[in-house]
Amino acid sequence: MNLDVFSLEGKTALVTGASRGLGQGMAVALARAGADVAVADIAALSSDDTCQKITAFGRKAVAIVGDLSQSDVPETLFATAVEKLGKVDILVNNAGIIRRAPAVEFSDKDWDDVIQINLNAVFKLSRAAGRHMIASGRGGKIISTASLLSFQGGVFVPSYAASKGAVAQLTKAFANEWASQGINVNAIAPGYMATDNTAPLRADEDRSKAILARIPAGRWGTPEDVANVAVFLASKASDYINGHVLVVDGGWMAR
User: Fold this and answer.
1) 47 class by beta-carbon count within 10 Å (0-12 exposed, 13-18 middle, 19+ buried)
2) Which of 179, 194, 207, 209 supports an S-S bond with 242, CB 3.0-4.6 Å?
3) How confident is the model at residue 248 (pLDDT cuts 50, 70, 90)?
4) How many Å apart are CA 77 and CA 152, to the nearest integer?
């Protein structure tokens, strides 16, 4: 087997929501595999741990600040990444938010906020990436963070479930149009991960026990579990994978 197909030497990537958790893990893993990386988040990243971890591998790290809740930011953010890196070969749509409330109490604002970041921004960033990659003639890789709620409805998270279901469908729709252009569009659906977002669940002994009881692997996932899959989907090793939502959940969906 030729392991060179997993190398990202000479590639450039843009990762959103890269200041911590899964986004940071994926950004650093792409750099470890050889890519220069633009890391984007709502907060300043110039001194962030993500950039330091990337440069430790001898790769270039570019920090971009952008609030994806603003409708014009996705295109501007992508253009900035191209300007700073010269090109973007890999886009990772990872930024996302969640709001929780019973459906009868769920506000219009919570609905709109989640849809704007989790869905509209993914569409606009992917559209910008598609235009760029088609025009370059080099193709590229687009990876979005989906969720187990791309398949399940969840409880008290209607906007999140709707957005992540839509991300899965967008992944397929883009793949149908762009596969022939050498652009691979896929998504990763993480299961229960040990990140800041799940800290309250992990701190709740009863809830954590119930979650672990359903995971055949018997443990919470880690950012590295997702990051390794991101490298695979960003590399030549995945050149014949199109429109797929790859579940990384320790077997949760198999139960």
Assistant:
1) exposed
2) 179
3) very high
4) 31
Backbone conformation region of residue 182, classed left if phi is above 0, alpha if psi is from -120 to 50, else beta: left
| Catalytic site includes residue 240 | no
d(CA 129, CA 224): 25
Q: What is the pLDDT of residue 46?
A: 43
* 141 within some domain: yes
**60: in domain:** yes
User: What's the total number of domains in the chain?
Assistant: 1
CATH number for the domain harbouring residue 103: 3.40.50.720
d(CA 212, CA 152): 18
Domain span at residue 13? Answer: 3-248
Mean pLDDT across 21-45? 93
CB-side neighbour CA atoms (13 Å) of 123: 14
For strands 61-65 and 140-145, give the pairing: unpaired
The single residue of 160, 174, 232, 252 carrying the catalytic annotation is: 160
Is residue 175 in a domain? yes
144 within some domain: yes
Side-by-side strand order, sheet with 12-16: 61-65, 36-41, 12-16, 90-93, 140-145, 183-190, 245-248
pLDDT at 173 over 70: yes
In this predicted structure, the answer to whether residue 64 has a pLDDT above a threshold of 60 is yes
- Residue 239 is given by DSSP the state T
Q: Is the pLDDT of residue 47 over 50?
A: no
